[in-house]
Amino acid sequence: MPRSVNNVASRARRKRVLEMAKGYFGRRKNVWTVAKNAVEKALGYAYRDRRAKKRNFRALWIARINAGARMHGLSYSQLMGKLHANNIELNRKVLADLAMNHPEAFKAVVEKIK
To answer: How far apart are CA 18 and CA 29, in angstroms?
Structure first.
């Protein structure tokens, strides 16, 4: 009985990886072993950075809120503490947007907690 290798599935798998490598530089885009390694590495970075993105945005929001708070004589931690004490449930994303794009609204929030 001849050996069955399922070449259809093998070719489809290679084709899928080479499609993902489209746009890469040099042999990374068209040589199977090089492209496979490049795509695996890229997928690993993508997985890692989907999580890092959340951390980066939170850090950015905190920096923006802190800058806005200090313009009104408070630190970030004082502002957040007073917000929680007054049961004002605005998340950091919204607060950062107010501090950057709507300073009068951010000032109203600060005045409410003072």
So the answer is: 7
- CA–CA gap between residue 94 and residue 111 (Å, rounded): 17
CA distance 114 to 97: 20
Q: What does the pLDDT look like over 60-99, one tens digit per residue? A: 999 999 999 999 999 999 999 999 999 999 999 999 999 9
Architecture label for domain 7-113: Orthogonal Bundle (1.10)
**Rounded distance, CA 90 to CA 99, Å?**
12
How many whole angstroms separate alpha carbon 66 and alpha carbon 58?
A: 12
- CA-nearest of 110, 94, 106, 102 to 57 is 94
Residue 77 burial class via C-beta count within 10 angstroms: exposed 0-12, middle 13-18, buried 19 and up: exposed
Query: What does the domain layout of the chain look like in residue ranges?
Result: 7-113
The confidence score (pLDDT) of residue 2 equals: 87
By C-alpha distance, which of 102, 101, 92, 103 is closest to 61? 92
DSSP character for 25? S
